[in-house]
Automatic annotation (TrEMBL):
It is found in: Cytoplasm. Homotetramer. This is Zinc-type alcohol dehydrogenase-like protein. The keyword rRNA-binding does not apply. PROSITE patterns: QOR_ZETA_CRYSTAL (PS01162). Residues 13-334 form the Enoyl reductase (ER) domain. Keywords: Acetylation, Cytoplasm, Metal-binding, NADP, Oxidoreductase, RNA-binding, Zinc. It comes from the Bacteria. Pfam families: ADH_N, ADH_zinc_N. CDD domains: AL_MDR. Belongs to the zinc-containing alcohol dehydrogenase family. Quinone oxidoreductase subfamily.
Length: 338
């Protein structure tokens, strides 16, 4: 089968950083689905895993953790799907990724593809929707059905992939959303997605929040550069409020003000359930199905903003390069094989 992989971890400008390869088609066992991949999306995790380092893989390593496709075959323990079903999923970072014609994936982290979306648009949804959903409704303990309606939520990195779907999920739950953006096009993007207010994350946050008539915020989601924004968000979080981050820190995060406020800081990592095969692993299946229902009902819109074709090493290198520039709005998707 066709695939895009790497054996060395190189700068993205090097043509060997991602290469077209031929691999053996896998066979499903247990609760695995064998999915014929029709479209994929690229995320910051891809560039982080691929980042240059002194390591050589004995066999091509396949990246990619956002896909949509058709179930080709199922393992003997599969209960949720059958061959021919159209699916979408983010995958498991401990297993080969979706940058291949066929992929094995545990059915418990797979959802039924939204019927209203084609494969390319569906591939843009899983990783970011899982991340934002878990961040808001599990880590921040906000109520998905609206019990926290009217409370304030600041999203740092509103125009990125997770922020783009996160704004929409937060508005579905009735929250007052303040999103950060720094350019006219990204500001317009987050407004179109439903953000109630927009602030610039390159400028001090408190004066901008106070200009909106607010002193403290009920919840804060760090979807961009935890180190850069830590001091500002700790200042803004209300006493007994909650902060969630998806971006690992490089420097120590001062905790004294968090203690004074009895505030909570929690991490969100969407691969936790699949990495550790937690007893509630199937929650991601239910979550994706719920998101698909919202999309088909017109409550959430697709966040794909660029589609490349076909799926090959050259186009994936271009997508990685764009992500590494740090100015992406929405999601980058690739569809079809040569």
């Amino acid at each position: 089968m066709k695939a895009v992989g790497l054996t060395r971890y190189l700068p993205i400008d090097d043509p060997e950083s991602l290469m077209d390869v031929e691999l053996e088609k896998p066979q499903p066992g247990g609760r695995d689905l064998l999915v014929a991949v029709k479209a994929i999306a690229v995320n910051p995790v891809d560039t982080k895993v691929r980042a240059p380092k002194d390591k050589i893989e004995p066999e091509p390593k396949v990246l990619g953790w956002d896909a949509a496709g058709i179930v080709e075959a199922v393992g003997p323990e599969v209960e949720l799907f059958q061959p021919g079903d159209e699916v979408f999923y983010a995958g498991d970072i401990t297993r080969p990724g979706c940058n291949s014609e066929f992929q094995l994936i545990d059915e418990r982290i797979v959802g039924a593809k939204p019927q209203s979306l084609d494969f390319a648009k569906a591939a843009a949804i899983p990783l970011t929707s899982i991340t934002a959903y878990e961040a808001f409704f599990e880590r921040l303990e906000l109520d998905v059905d609206g019990a926290n309606s009217g409370e304030t939520l600041l999203i740092i990195g509103g125009a990125g992939g997770v922020g783009s779907i996160g704004i929409q999920l937060a508005k579905l739950a009735g929250l007052t959303v303040i999103a950060t953006a720094s350019r006219p096009e990204s500001t317009e993007w987050v407004k179109q997605l439903g953000a109630d207010h927009v602030v610039n994350h390159y400028e001090p946050l408190r004066p901008q929040i106070e200009a909106l008539g607010m002193k403290y915020l009920d919840s804060i989601a760090l979807f961009n550069n935890t180190d850069q924004h830590w001091e500002g968000v700790v200042d803004l979080i209300r006493p007994q409020g909650r902060i969630v981050s998806i971006v690992e820190n490089k420097e120590p995060l001062a905790q004294s003000m968090m203690k004074t406020k009895s505030a909570t800081f929690v991490w969100e990592f969407m691969y936790t359930r699949s990495m550790f095969e937690t007893p509630d692993m199937i929650e991601q299946h239910h979550l994706l199905n719920r998101v698909a229902e919202w999309i088909d009902a017109g409550k959430i819109s697709c966040t794909a903003n660029q589609v490349l074709s076909p799926i090959n090493a050259a186009n994936l290198r271009e997508a990685h390069k764009t992500l590494e520039a740090g100015r992406t709005i929405g999601k980058i998707v690739l569809e079809g094989w040569d």
